[in-house]
Every structure is written in C-alpha cells, then in structure tokens.
TrEMBL record, chain A:
Pfam assignment, any one: PaaB
Origin: domain of life: Bacteria
Protein name: 1,2-phenylacetyl-CoA epoxidase subunit B
Native organism taxonomy: Bacteria, Bacillati, Actinomycetota, Actinomycetes, Catenulisporales
InterPro entries from the UniProt entry: PaaB, PaaB_sf
Gene name for this UniProt entry: paaB
From TrEMBL, chain B:
Superkingdom classification of source: Bacteria
Record SUPFAM superfamilies: Ferritin-like (SSF47240)
Stretch forming the signal peptide: none
Annotated protein name in UniProt: Phenylacetate-CoA oxygenase subunit PaaC
Organism for this UniProt entry: Catenulispora yoronensis
C-alpha cells in the first residue's frame, strides 16, 4: 500500500448535543476526499451525525518530554476536584 | 411461467450483482487502504440491492428459486445484466469511469422507480437511491481529481470514459420487459432516463477538463443473455465455491 497522500485526523459527533470525538485518521488528497474516506471508515455502523477532518500536520501536540511540567502539578491539588460538596437530596444527573 | 415484474427485477438485480462482484475484485488491490474500504462499501451496497431484487424475482417466478440459486446456479446466457457492469476493472481510472456511468444511471433509475406502482420495487428504490447517490458522488469526486490531475491521470481517465462509452447505449435501450411494465407504471422506460443522465455525465466530464466521448459503435445484448468474453471468467470465479460445495454456508 503506497501512500504519499496527506494524513487527516478524524472527529465524529455521535449524537446531537455531544461534542466531536477523535476517532482516528485517514489518508486523502484533500479535505473533501478525507471526509468521504472518514465516512466510509468510521460511520459504517451509524456511529455519527457529523464529521470533522483536520490536517494532521496542523495539530500542535504536547511533547512527552514536557510531561512533568505539564501534568504533574495537577496531581496533588485535590481541591480542584469537586468532591467537597454535599449533593442535595433529590438532585439527579450530577 | 415467469412474470414481467420477475424479469425486470432479475435485470436490475443482475446489474447490481455483477457490478458488486467486479468491485469486490479491488479488495486488497486498491491504490490506497482507504479506497479499498470505499470500493468494498460500494460493492456491499450493490450486493444488498441484488439480494432484495433476486429474492423478489425468485418469489414471483414461482419455481422456488432462492437468491442463491439465481446468483450461483444460472449459466452465462441466463444472466440479464447490461454489458457495462461486466467490463473488466482495468486500471483505477477505468473503474471510476464505469462507476460514473453506471451510478449516474442507477441514480436516475431508482429516483424514478420510487414512484413505481409495484410496492416492492418502490421500496427497494427508496432505500437504494440514497446509496447510489453516494456512489455517484464518489465517482464524480475521483473523475474530477483524475481528469484535472496530472498528465498521466488525465490520460488514463480520458481512456476510461472513451473505452466504456459504447456500452452506455444499452442502458437506455427500449427493452421489451421494461416497456411493457412502464405502461402500467411499475417500471421506468429506460429511454426517458437518458437526457438527465447525459447532462449530468457531460457536466462532470467537462468540469474534469476531459473530452466528452462519442462514436457510433453500440454493443448490446446483455438483457438478452449475450455477454462479452470476460463475463464467463467472472461467473466462474463467483460461482466456483457454490458449485463445488452446494449450499455451502458460513
């Protein structure tokens, strides 16, 4: 399988009201073809109502080397988690 | 004694079945992994249409033949598909040209058949018209990109539309079965589909910077069971398993 074609990241929205989720990537010559390839690869079983494709080259990603300064400081700050509230009785879906 | 509707369903079912078989030959051979999946998807859509149509034809003719009997146990001369769908895949551009011609035809056909007085045919058409709208879009996108692509892709795309052009005449032939049924509103008179088909195809070919093919040679005979040389090999491959292991299931 050759492939000189650019890579595209695919995001699918499963239902109305949900946000688009990253599901994988496809090769395609341009955005329109990427949408079609994504449709064929990722929505075969009725998974989605909307597709986004983004050139993979345009994604800026955090580097594994920066893992400690990026993520470790959050580890011991339990006060950022909403666990100190008492949930009033009768409140559903919280 | 077979009915006209059974014969008509057989014609349309054979078209879908044979094109499905041809497209599935691309499986694991397409230019890109993504295209492999795309072509297999088209083939599966067509196979679904073929199953509905052949099952319906089998039930109407009253000889107790199932979809499998019709697909795997008929001989070459008993198939009623048009010659276009049995033409070999050639290169990718040739396959796209065949798709462009046939999906555009199928789209016009099914769109009209949604109004059929035969509930089964109308139901099938309503479902299938959405599928073939996508098949046509797939072919259009590729025709534009190959035609308006590199010098080499353009040459191949032009060759594809040129070589297959003669086989398009048969799609719109005044077929006796279709004409009889068109009178009662059950089928579509194939001749009425040509203007919209030609306008649609011409628009794509022009946008793809290609030249619209022309020529007087118009091979025909598929609807009467007279097929081209390559068809026997296709059937041989399609039917080999069922003939070696009758009733095989998995």
């Amino acid at each position: 399988m050759s492939t000189g074609l650019p890579l595209w990241e695919v995001f699918i929205r499963g239902r109305r009201g949900l946000s688009h989720q990253h599901v994988g990537s496809v090769h395609a010559s341009d955005a329109e073809m990427a949408l079609r390839n994504a449709r064929d690869l990722y929505t075969r079983r009725g998974e989605g109502v909307s597709i986004w494709v983004v050139p993979a080259a345009q994604v800026s990603a955090s580097s594994p080397d920066e893992k400690e300064p990026f993520f470790d400081p959050a580890a011991d700050k339990t006060y950022r988690h909403p666990t100190f509230y008492r949930i009033p009785e009768g409140v559903k879906n919280l | 004694m077979t009915t006209p509707v059974a014969q008509y369903a057989l014609q349309l079912g054979d078209d879908a079945l044979i094109l499905s078989q041809r497209l599935s030959e691309w499986c694991a051979h397409a230019p890109e992994l993504e295209e492999d999946v795309a072509l297999a998807n088209l083939a599966l859509d067509l196979l679904g249409q073929a199953r509905t149509l052949l099952t319906y034809a089998g039930s109407l003719e009253g000889r107790g033949r199932s979809e499998d009997d019709l697909a795997f146990l008929r001989t070459e001369r008993e198939f009623r598909n048009v010659l276009l769908v049995e033409q070999p895949n050639g290169d990718f551009a040739m396959t796209i040209a065949r798709q462009l011609y046939f999906a555009t035809y199928q789209y016009e056909l099914y769109a009209a058949l949604c109004e059929s007085t035969d509930a089964e045919l109308a139901g099938l058409a309503a479902k299938a018209v959405k599928e073939v709208a996508y098949h046509r879009d797939h072919a259009v996108q590729w025709t534009l990109r190959l035609g308006d692509g590199t010098e080499e892709s353009r040459r191949r795309m032009q060759e594809g539309v040129d070589q297959l052009w003669p086989y398009t005449a048969e799609l719109f032939e005044a077929d006796a079965v279709a004409l009889e049924l068109a009178g009662s509103g059950a089928a579509v008179d194939p001749r009425t589909l040509r203007p919209a088909w030609e306008a649609s195809v011409a628009e794509v070919i022009e946008a793809a910077t290609l030249t619209m093919p022309s020529g007087d040679w118009q091979p025909r005979g598929g609807r009467a069971g007279k097929h081209t040389e390559a068809f026997g090999l296709l059937l041989g491959e399609m039917q080999a398993l069922h003939r070696q292991f009758p009733g095989a299931a998995w």
